[in-house]
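Hello Y.,

Per our agreement to keep a running log of every chain we model this quarter, I'm adding this entry. I've kept the format consistent with earlier entries: sequence first, then predicted structure.
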Amino acid sequence: MMKKEMALGLVIAPVVILISSNAFCQAGAIPTNRLINPEDLVKVMQSGKEKPLVLQVGSHMLFLQAHIPGSEYVGAASTETGVQQLRKRVESLPRNKFLVIYCGCCPWSHCPNVKPADDALQALGFTNMKVLYIADNFGTNWVDKGYPTAKGE
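Predicted structure for the entry above:
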C-alpha cells in the first residue's frame, strides 16, 4: 500500500504545480490579434498617423527607470487599485480610441498585469486596443533594442 500511495502522490504533485503556475500565465490567454510587437509599435509611433494613448499597467519603479515616451503610468493592474485607476483614466474616452497597454516587468508568461488590464478595457467596450507583447522584459525587448525611452515621471 505504501508504494501505491507514494506513486499516487507523484502523479498528483505535478498537476498541482501546473495548476498553480497557470495563475502566472494569464497573458498567454490574450488573443494574438490584440497583441502588438515592440518594433510595430515604434513604427506606428513614428508614422505620423494617429498616435495611440500608451498606458503602462505595471510597476511604478519600472516606469520611473524607463518607459515609452509619452506613455502614462496608471498603476499595476494586478491590484484592484491599479484596475480602478485604469478605468478612471479611460472612462471619458471614445470606445474606439487607439489604446496600447504594456507592462514589461517580467517574461510574458509570468506577467500579472496585462491580462487584468486587457480584461478591464474589453469589459468597458474598447474596440481599438493593443497589448504590447514583451517576451522577456522591458529592458531586453525595448531599451536594449534602442527604441525611444524616457525616464522619470
